[in-house]
Structure formats: structure tokens, C-alpha cells
Amino acid sequence: MSTLSIHQTRRWIKQSEHPVARKLLHIVKALRAFEISLPRPICHLLYNGYRTLRTAVSELMRVFWWTPLFKGRLTANGKRLNLYGGLPYISGPLQISLGDDCRISGQTTFTGRTVGSESPRLIVGHNVDISWMTTIAVGRQVRIGDNVRIAGRAFLAGYPGHPLNAEERAAGLPEADEQVGDIILENDVWLATGVSVMAGVRIGRGTIVAAGSVVTRDLPAFVLAGGIPAKVIHPLDGGE
User: Fold this and answer.
1) Which residues are within 8 A (CB) of 123 and not within 5 positions of it... i.e. 6 or more apart?
2) 126 is catalytic
3) Active-site entry in 26, 44, 162, 234
4) pLDDT of 116 strictly over 80
């Protein structure tokens, strides 16, 4: 049966007043509402069994599949890597170096600029969290210090991927060199959920950037910053 015929049949069942269509609609609704009634203890047992099985499978995949695959793409990796939730997407001639005790979500993206003679480098320190749906686009170099926390949906934009000129974009040309810049996160930086860091930015040690902020200029050490563009809100304890 073709796709068109299937849609026509579904429309007929939903809209027709014919007794057969009404009966079929009743049957479809009954099937949609069908459920198996089980005692609550059995439901708890089934759910806990499902969670146990899912966790066991996930751990086996992490240890014996995702982590070895990811390490095969790294230039250098430290000890005790915790790669959870799958395999990050990596594109471009990107060199990636990880320190010890890093925790990286499999739902992340690492890209390297393909234009230029030198391979872009992503250098990650020790005890770093890179959370789900974060994208790190490396133009030349991105350095992430020790004890850095990057929450979900962050974006480190070391290069934009397209030129500013509309005609050049339409022609498929790459971005200009002046659109590319290094990004440096010093030790103990915390980027909250949804933070974007633009090319050429350095964030000082211990600084916290509030959720949803866009960092377009350097930030000093030990401050709370936020906004679009991000500005210093107030200093934090621990500054020198």
C-alpha cells in the first residue's frame, strides 16, 4: 500500500460517518488506550530491573567501546577518563589532548578549522567537566585549564565557519583569518548552562559566567560575569 493510500485511509477513518469507519476508529482508540494492569510491586520490580540492565549495558559500552574509540582519536590522553553517554562528534584536522580525571559527555561536538597550514589544537587540563550538547569549535587553539566546569549547551566559538561577506558565503568560501581567534579558560573557570565564548577571549582564573551569557571580551580573574555581552557583575571571594 502506498503512503498516499495509507494517509487517505487514516483520514477516512477519522472523518467519515460510515459505520465501518466509526467501528475502526473505536478499535484504534481502544488499542491506543490498552494497558496491562499489574500490581505496584511488580511494576517497581520491572522498572528497577530495566534501570539495572540499562546501567550495566551503558557501562559496558563505555568501558569496552566508546572510550577506546575516543582515545583512538586523541593526540594525548591522561588517566581515568570518564566518557559517558556515547561518542562525541569530531570533525576537521583537530588535535585533542586531555589531562587526568576528565569527564566528557558523548553528546558533545569538537570541530577544527580546515583552512590553514597548522592543525588546530584543543588542550584540556586535569579534572575538567565538558557537559552534554557542548560544542567546541577550534580555529587555532582552545586551552582549557585545570578544574574547569563547562555546563550543558555551551559554545566555544574559535571560528565562525563562514565569511561576513554575503557573496563569499554564497560562493562557499571560508571565513577570513581575522575572524579566527584563540580561546583560553584559565584554571577553575565555570561556564554555566548555555554560555557562548567568542574567538579571541580569555577568561581569568576562578571566574564564573552566568547561564545564557555571551562572552565577547576578556574577563578578569575571580569575578561573576553575565549578560549579552557578558560584563562583570561583582568580584568573588578567593581573588588575590
Assistant:
1) 97, 141, 142, 143, 144
2) no
3) 162
4) no
